[in-house]
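User: Show me sequence and structure for the first protein, then do the same for the second.

Assistant: Starting with the first protein.
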Amino acid sequence: MAVRKSLSYSKKHNRPYTRVSKVKSKSYIKVVPPNKVVKYNIGNQRAYVDGKLPFILSLISDEMIVIKDLSIEAARQVLTKNLETRLMGKFYLWVKIHPHHILRNNKAAAGAGADRLSTGMKQSFGIIEGRAARVLGGQELFMVACDSESTVKVAREILGMAKAKLPCRTRVLFDKIEDKAHSPTPVVNQ
């Protein structure tokens, strides 16, 4: 079965749908689809926690949007592959968004004889198709920490490559942590 295009969900400002009933016979969502995002923390996490990576680049969303987990994973793969080949242990990548929102699709058959196959809007809840992250305008999507100004230039270029995988307008913000003892500690969920 083909994946429904992201435009069907991305610009819709619908209600978040994350709850799953404990009683399977009474729930609309019988099964929660698997999360396609494999890792959330990549690179030299120890150096980041110790404050040895003071230069921080953040990829920020400029609009309120729903991003499918496939898009998040595609952007993460581009970032991971290019950062590992070009910076080799001098970076830390942190994926800041999580796909909790469950996507549904009310399939309706179109064409000749479709009136006997489709139920229309009767029982129109739809089947579960995937997961997505609901992102607000100004929310941080990815964070890359680097050790020097030269690695920041490379990381900024690689973040530009990851922008093409996301369905929203984004910008890159640069920050330098002056006090190395007070770097924010990432949540480890791998």
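Switching to the second protein now.
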Amino acid sequence: MAEGQQRVEFKRKLVVDENNVDKIKRLGVPFAFSGRIVEAYYNNAELDSVEIIWSDGKKNRSYHMAVDENDDQFQALLSEYSYESLDEATRMRNEAGRQVFRDAFHRYAMQNNMFSSGELPQSPEEFQGSLDLLFEFDPENDEQKEALFKFKLKIFEQEKVKNSKSKVNKSAIRKALTPLEAVAAFAKFK
């Protein structure tokens, strides 16, 4: 130290930034989410990223991390949440998302009179078959290709498609290789 300068020591204080609450640690606990996990699941198809929902006691918060066996944070997660638990939570969350989509599609189909009679198919098996066509379409199956063709025709019968001047949107319906692509193309019509 130079002559005339005094040594000043600073004590570290915990500063809480409301925008960065997930960085707050409790004394003796290695990470903010430790001991407070509500749910954890993979948040991408590659299964190389995890989202942790944890509670600070007042509200739930989200924390994202990479799946890395050598990372201390990931090891802390695994000490509370197994790979099996991550898989199961991911599967349940994905199925819930698919069900939301199915329900939304069903409402949309009913509102736009896309069922042949304007009502639900007669049997639950027929209805399930419609969902199977959407979510498990096999381009090699002749019956399903025929059903896709009929579905596209039904879309072209809708007033907003008939009255549209958009060649691009109509072409997207024609080029759709799956029922979901056809629905996505139809959804672009206003």
